[in-house]
Amino acid sequence: MPSHRTAAVISIGDELVLGQTLDTNTRWLASRLTDLGVRVVEHATVEDDAQRLAALFARLSAEVDLLLTTGGLGPTADDLTRTALAAFLNERLVTDEASLAEIRAWFEGRGRAMPETNSVQALRPESARSLTNPNGTAPGLLATDPRGVLIACMPGPPHEMKPMFEASVLPEIRPPDDRTIVTRVLHTFGYGESEVASRLGELMARTASPSVGTTASTGVVSVRIRHEGEGSCEDAELAVERMAETVRDKLGVAVFAEGSRTLEEMIVGVLRERRDTLAVVESCTGGMLGQTLTMVPGASDVFVGGWITYSNEQKTKLVGVSKETLEAHGAVSRQCCHEMAAGGLERSDADHCLAITGVAGPGGGTDEKPVGMVWIGLASRGMKPDIRCFRFKGPRDIVRLWSARTAMAMLRLRMINTTMKLLGEDADAR
Amino acid sequence: MPSHRTAAVISIGDELVLGQTLDTNTRWLASRLTDLGVRVVEHATVEDDAQRLAALFARLSAEVDLLLTTGGLGPTADDLTRTALAAFLNERLVTDEASLAEIRAWFEGRGRAMPETNSVQALRPESARSLTNPNGTAPGLLATDPRGVLIACMPGPPHEMKPMFEASVLPEIRPPDDRTIVTRVLHTFGYGESEVASRLGELMARTASPSVGTTASTGVVSVRIRHEGEGSCEDAELAVERMAETVRDKLGVAVFAEGSRTLEEMIVGVLRERRDTLAVVESCTGGMLGQTLTMVPGASDVFVGGWITYSNEQKTKLVGVSKETLEAHGAVSRQCCHEMAAGGLERSDADHCLAITGVAGPGGGTDEKPVGMVWIGLASRGMKPDIRCFRFKGPRDIVRLWSARTAMAMLRLRMINTTMKLLGEDADAR
């Protein structure tokens, strides 16, 4: 059987075309297919319209070997993927009894009877196969069109789609075996994208092989190294590895992780290695630093918790910031940040305490303390506190995310015993 | 001049096609265009390749009146939107002196000299206009092709793209004035999507006008009402308003907001109206509830802060959960949740305190306390505490988000003096 060299990913839903819902599935599927060596040539988004969707199936099935769709498999009248697939295949819809039983069982497992509306979810085009969905009521569909194009339709909710892809769709995909693709991603924090690019210089030329590109996302600048060609896998791995070494040399301590590893995973990992624990005292981030760290399963080994001291009263009451400090310097000051970090360290059993206090905006800024001014402090047992001032640009959510990430970067620098001026840092602020 | 009836949105970047970065711009632009009455017919995503991009400009400019692109305007060698637009227009690139001065000023405002690499960002096709970017170094581009299609190229970072769209692109868009589009979105919390659909019944038929559709996103089920036609604006408004009334009747207290208003904005709004204040005590959510509430500008009027009691020690130390309770019932129990909420209320000056403790997973589940089991408690001055057990499905991030949202929903129900069994609630748990 021929392999699946090219693919298209289709997202289905009025809410997507109208811009009411953010599609995260396409990114995820494109990433999985790219890893497999299947070239994604198009992402398309269409509304809940059986005719348009059937036409899209017709156009794309002439162009690619593999078609993945997400969405439109729900129980309501605007879920039309089943209908469109049947129309494209020129088949009638039949009830899949096994699917129907699974849907009933899903509801029964939750102590409810299956609403009659959900029975449409068990329909499939006659030649198609239903794909089991352990995480929801919408079974997927798998079909092969007369040309041999493989079509997999999966539900829209990511926590239903992803396990279905891995369990039921992936085994059907036959990636090309004559092309070698090796990719590697290094993540940096602390330099801006221009700074990274100028350090990498001609490594980033369009003609370079392996190719090197950068993307920036709220402080994290990622460097992608990619080899695609016909040579042996070993040679490609070696070339990419060599390039990764060169990139590491040029970017030094700013490189904090590789691959899918996030800043927070790295922090939890380094804390765990050192058997250190962390507490937080958050003002303008309102819990974001704690929330981010606890996205990592097992964070409880190293993260004890902390305080959200959003009001001045709570800063005094919960972690002992002195009223005099607040009166003389205000909540957004080196002194307050220092007392927050030291107070949190003293009141917790942790080895480190990170404190954040700043003006996230849009209101609350003054000439002296403009929106985006954020003090971040790190107190650690037996060490001099590290208190820095930053001037972040952007709207409220960006200032907050930048603050939480910079706090993690400061902790990392301390734990690996090094130092670095971080992007946005105002070294002259006192 | 003819109006812009149809549009396509193009996202540019290897990182998007390969699935390394999530595109949020297309959703935002589609939403803005839909609001204006411009019909978005295609979303496309392409890699950083000048030839492919120029070809896409050629194909789409034959199909639509308005082309919006995001990305590929950075300073590095893989930013090729400028080159592609020039190739499509068959023009050479020239330096825009005003842009160059702005880019220099941007760096100088940050106490740095402009790296030489950034000067390419001032290039524009000869007939194009540069668009000012107050939030970054990449100017936008605005061009009209020989057919009269308006092409606007904007930078990829959302906090640069959005203000540029509003200030420099929007004024150039001429929406059709002969078609009436009225949309309305009602947001509900507490019912599942099937339940909402079965309550709405035939209102959701594909042939209904105005049309009614639903989308679900981690507990929030949104009902979209949309009229599109040739009648008068007043008639359309009236029809949509009448339908919204019917939907409200059928869904009752589950409807919590309209339009772009989020659950957290509603909560901050209702607290403010009542002059009430709120504190939080978070375990498995690790700060997410505080983070979510403080996404709302001005949350400091009503949110005092709270505690992240991630470890058992901190539950005892910070909010006074008794060791006996933890030993007898564990941290994920009605008793512990009750003591967290009551302890937080007692130790803060707030009128309400929300507490969350549960098993977010993936590890830590037992037969008795499986992953997804979450206790949420609400203590309010002078009222009986409301402590409920939920069994949420899905991975860690979903369980946590569902928990934070459900906590807000419980607070809302109390503040509007009503009650409702919420989705996932285990009314029998003790």
Mean pLDDT of chain A: 93
> Helix segment count of chain A?
14
| CATH superfamily heading of the largest domain in chain A | MoaB/Mog-like domain
As laid out across the biggest beta sheet of chain A, the strand order is 2-1-3-8-7-6
What form of chain A results from the Cα inertia axes? globular
Sheet having the most strands of chain A: 6 strands, mixed
**What is the radius of gyration of chain A?**
26 Å
Structural class of chain A: alpha/beta
Oligomer: homodimer
N/C terminus separation of chain A? 69 Å
Write the layout of secondary structure elements.
The structure is a homodimer of 430-residue chains.
Chain A: E1 6-12, H1 14-17, H2 25-36, E2 39-46, H3 50-61, E3 66-70, H4 81-89, E4 93-95, H5 97-108, E5 123-125, E6 129-131, E7 140-144, E8 150-154, H6 158-169, E9 180-189, H7 193-200, E10 211-217, E11 220-229, H8 233-251, E12 255-258, H9 263-274, E13 278-282, H10 288-293, E14 303-309, H11 312-319, H12 323-329, H13 334-347, E15 352-358, E16 373-380, E17 386-391, H14 396-415
Parallel strand pairs in A: 1-2, 1-3, 3-8, 13-14, 13-15
Antiparallel strand pairs in A: 4-5, 6-7, 7-8, 9-11, 9-12, 10-11, 15-16, 16-17
Helix pairs in contact in A: 3-4, 9-14
Give your account of this protein's structure.
2 copies of one chain form a homodimer. Chain A has 430 residues and is an alpha/beta fold. The first copy, chain A, is 36% helix and 24% strand. Chain A has a 6-stranded mixed beta sheet with strand order 2-1-3-8-7-6, with helices on both faces. A 5-stranded mixed beta sheet of chain A has the order 14-13-15-16-17, sandwiched between helices. A 4-stranded antiparallel beta sheet of chain A has the order 10-11-9-12. In chain A, strand 16 and strand 17 form a beta hairpin. The first copy, chain A, has 3 domains: 6-172, MoaB/Mog-like domain (Molybdenum Cofactor Biosythetic Enzyme, Chain A, 3-Layer(aba) Sandwich), CATH 3.40.980; 180-258, Alpha-Beta Plaits, CATH 3.30.70.2860; 263-415, Alpha-Beta Complex (Maf protein). The first copy, chain A, has helices at 14-17, 25-36, 50-61, 81-89, 97-108, 158-169, 193-200, 233-251, 263-274, 288-293, 312-319, 323-329, 334-347, 396-415, and strands spanning 6-12, 39-46, 66-70, 93-95, 123-125, 129-131, 140-144, 150-154, 180-189, 211-217, 220-229, 255-258, 278-282, 303-309, 352-358, 373-380, 386-391. Chains A and B meet through helix 1, helix 2, strand 2, helix 7 and strand 10 of A and helix 1, helix 2, strand 2, helix 7 and strand 10 of B.
